[in-house]
Amino acid sequence: MLRLLAGQMAELMEDGPPDEVRDRLFPPAYDDAIKQAEFRRLMATDLEERKKADLQTMRATLERSPVDLEPEHAAAWLSSLQDMRLTIGTLLGIDHDGWESEDIDDPQFAVLHYLGFVQDSIVGALG
Fold first, then answer.
1. What Å distances lie between residue 16 and 10, 25, 27, 65, 83, CA to CA?
2. Does residue 99 carry a pLDDT above 70?
3. Angle between helices 107-126 and 2-15 (to 10 degrees)
4. Rounded to an integer, what distance in angstroms lies between the CA atom of residue 26 and that of residue 39?
5. pLDDT band at 98, cuts 50/70/90?
6. Which residue of 8, 17, 93, 122 could cross-link 21, Cys pair, CB 3.0 to 4.6 Å?
7. Region for residue 126 given its phi and psi (left: phi exceeds 0; alpha: psi -120 to 50; beta: otherwise)
8. CA-CA distance, 23 to 87, in Å (whole number)?
9. Cα angle 52, 16, 26; round to 5
């Protein structure tokens, strides 16, 4: 599942995510419109390239057998997992905290829980 999701996320980043996903993945740094426009002009490409590089690190790790996550790749994994969760959550219309405790009978929500579990496992292994 992680290979599939990482591949889909890489395609989404290459094709350009929908606006609502882009807004979640790249939230504004400034409330001021002029400052925000300048920030985007200066940083947007770097931020996108960082996310793509993190995904590439994750995908390369997943191609190994057995998958062995090295500590120096953990940050890339955590970033990519968070981006996947933000993307899926946005596409599902999650817009509030506490959704995890709601009784939702939809397998896509199970994917969000699984990605959260993987994130938590990585953080726990690093601690």
1. 10, 11, 15, 31, 14
2. no
3. 100
4. 11
5. low
6. 17
7. alpha
8. 10
9. 65
